[in-house]
Amino acid sequence: MSIEQRRVLATAIPGPKSTELQQRKKAAVSAGVGVTLPVYIERAGGGILVDVDGNQLIDFGSGIAVTTVGNSAPRVVERVQRQVADFTHTCFMITPYEEYLEVCEALNALTPGDHDKRSALFNSGAEAVENAIKVARAATGRQAVVAFDHAYHGRTNLTMALTAKNMPYKQSFGPFANEIYRVPMAYPYRWPTGSEHCADEAFAMFVNTVHAQVGEANTAAVIVEPIQGEGGFIVPPPGFLSMVADWCTENGIVFIADEIQTGFCRTGDWFASEFEGVVPDLIATAKGIAGGLPLAGVTGRAELMDAVHVGGLGGTYGGNPVACAAALGAIETMRAEDLPGRARIISSIMLPRLRTMAERFELIGDVRGRGAMLAIELVSDRSAKTPDPIATGLISSACHQQGLVTLTAGTFGNVLRFLPPLSIGDELLTEGLDILEAAIVQHLASP
Ligand SMILES: *Cc1c(COP(=O)(O)O)cnc(C)c1O
Questions:
Q1: Is the C-beta atom of 258 inside 6 A of ligand 1?
Q2: Ligand 1 geometric centre to CA of 259 (Å)
Q3: Nearest alpha-carbon partner for 298 in 67, 69, 86, 138
Q4: Where are the domains positioned within the chain?
Q5: pLDDT tens digit sequence for 299-313
């Protein structure tokens, strides 16, 4: 690894060069494109981001769960360099190429279920979700789509409609696509009658809502993130996803798993659905699939995926050969380095530390997640579970000052989430947790 795996604070965060670039950003880039931490990155690899001022930051974000294999992973770099020299684009819909087939074959083989599958490739997660909905509607001849509270499915018009949170994703951008219906999510920590009742009661509410407000026979699809991402790393209780999936099957409804954030080893399995043996009809993937290059996929039952008329799916760049080469390098890395296993080891290092912090600090109301997708939910009052988005923002910023890249999440903005690249070393993980703990101590000590 060419980048020394060591945190370095060479200047204040952000340093002078980053500050200058941030001024240029204000003059050149739409204000609508926000920046969490305005340090401008020059190189990255392993678990380290190197900025233009020579600071080396510990990465607990992976560019939002994208660089699962690490930045500039050798197998990705090698394949991309070869591909970019051979050819960069023909458009798969005009004159195709083998790399696209190889990615689809890998998706068909790796995703849950051993039924006959087909895949199609796109550029972004939102585009994959849109296409999964297109497939479900075409295959069923139905229109309604059911999504959950706290869901995040993207920022295009249809996916904004599926996304639950208003600010910043939907505010002032309506009207939204219609025939989208929302049901309560099984959110154990905030379930009114207690987490032990969450699975059964949430499932009953789901069934009753779809029956009463939508009608099973009108429902094309139910879409769910097996662990919700932007909504706050909400892990549904055991049994909930299987009940929903089985009920969909009984009613001829397409069950879509949005595994864009959870997929490709992040949660300790290749896909989070596997954890309780759920086999989705369609599965949307993106983020971790291609080591940082833009690529997304929809994979599902052959009879659904093939129900669409010729030419109904596609796009100019979807399954671009360079992005496909990157995906093949990323998948090869995941296999060779047993990255599902690595995600479980990361969990075994991080979870006990986070749980100990929760015992120490009342502020931490909940610790949850799976594999290398972990979070703490911060509350100002443990018994009332009052969300504390202010403390969340301040602690996250304090981590940034110390050279640890952390992200926030949650409908109430009170979740600190951790998504380290699976290429991070144990020492950086531990150091990151030390920084987090110190930031909480410092926050609680400040008036
Ligand atoms: C990020 C994300 C999306 C959207 O992906 P983009 O590539 O940003 O369009 C959709 N669903 C989930 C669960 C995500 O985490």
A1: yes
A2: 9
A3: 138
A4: 16-72+338-445, 75-336
A5: 999 999 999 999 999
